[in-house]
Structure formats: structure tokens, C-alpha cells
Amino acid sequence: MKKKEIKNIIFDFGDVIINLDKQATKRELNKLGLDEFDAEMHKINQLYERGKIDTIEFLCFYQTKIPKATDDELIDAWNSIILDLPRYRMDFIKKLAKKYNLYLLSNINPLHLKHIRSMLDDDLYVEFLYLFNEIFYSHLIEMRKPDEAPFKYVIKRTGINPEETLFIDDTLENCETAKKMGFNTWHINPETEDIINFRKIFLNDFFATLHFI
After folding, report:
1. What is the DSSP letter of 80?
2. Are residues 13 and 41 in the same domain?
3. CA angle (122 as vertex; 11, 126 as ends), nearest 5
């Protein structure tokens, strides 16, 4: 069966568009006195990403783990994972937006989003928002990848056909869920790959037929 032409692209945010240092938060929390991440912390982090607890509850929880840490110290440690949003990637996505419907589906939380907004001036953040037809932040839609729910939500909200959609994410589990639901997927390796180079990466017959810029 002939594959359908790609009309839509769904981007993950971290380590796809914005650069991350995924070990930084643990490293900085360790400096504040945290010995190790436990199962309870992972649960709280996911609840925060799903919008099920607010920032005050989130910080209060971590202060039970690191009593001597101030709110500002915890926030700085939490946000240390975020590096930069390269201008060249925004320019590339802007070119894609001339031909494709673009969406952002991100597991993110209020503190990270606030930090990203503070990194960019108002004009640049507005420019970033307008790159996409619609943006889906996990803490606002109260769903997170790799669950099927956020993908179903995006499909229902936008009316897109997964077979006509490319999903790009740096987490294999997220890509596996998307692929199971009929999406075309690119499990990107942020250490060796960049979204601006996918024409060079996908040389098989399917991607050779796509009209990427």
C-alpha cells in the first residue's frame, strides 16, 4: 500500500527544538542535599506535568526531601535542565510552516514553561508561538506522553490523519505509542541528529517522496 503524503508534523519540545541537559536537575538537586531520586519523586514530577498539582504543592514536596533548600534554589535546580532555543531551528520551522500544518506536543510543567518564556524576549516568544497551528502542553491538557490519551486528544482537536502526520520525539517510548496509533515517527537522537537535517537522514523510499524544504 502506498504511504500517504505527509501534511502535518508534530514536534516534541525538549531536545528536539530546545536543547536540554537532562542530568542537570539531578546534579543540582544533589548539590542542595538530595541523595537520590526515588519512585515518589518520579510520581510527583509526572503529576506536575499533568497539571494535577500546582507549583506550590510541587515545591513543598521537594522541601520535605531537601528541608534546607529555599524556593529559589529549588526552582533554579529544577530549571537547570533547560539550555537554549537555537535561532536557526526557529527559522527552519518557519520554513516548514509554509507547507505543513505544525503542532507542538510537549510533556512540560509551569516552572519550565515560565523559565523558557523568561529566556526569550516577548517578541521572540510570540514568534515561537506563531510557528505552530496549535500547541499542546501536558500540564494544560492534563495528559502526558507516552499515554495514548494526548495523541487521541490531538487527533480529535485538530482532525489530522495520523497516516499523514510525522511525529518527532527524542523518547523512544513516546514514538512507540505514536507508531502504534498510525503516526509516522522519527525517534531523533539529539546527540547526533538535528531536525534541520532530516532530508539527509531519511533516504528510504518513503521519505524520498516527501517534499521537505
Report:
1. T
2. no
3. 40
- Dihedrals phi, psi of 135, to nearest 5 degrees: -120, 135
Question: What kind and span of H or E run contains 178?
Answer: helix 172-180
Closest CA to 151 of 174, 170, 173: 174
Q: Which residues pair with 134 in a beta bridge?
A: 103
Strands 134-137 and 8-11: unpaired
Q: What is the pLDDT of residue 206?
A: 47
Q: Do the Cβ atoms of 165 and 9 come closer than 8 Å?
A: yes
For residue 129, what are the contacts with CB-CB under 8 A and spacing of at least 6?
Answer: 135
Q: What is the pTM of this model?
A: 0.91
Same domain, 72 and 89: no
Does residue 65 fall inside a structural domain? Answer: yes
Over range 167-180, report the average pLDDT: 97
Beta strands in 53-143 (DSSP E): 101-106, 134-137
Confidence of residue 37 (pLDDT cuts 50, 70, 90): confident
pLDDT of 69? 96
Which residue range(s) make up the domain with 91?
8-19+85-208
Q: Which residues pair with 10 in a beta bridge?
A: 103, 167
With contact defined as beta carbons under 8 Å apart, do 195 and 92 qualify? yes
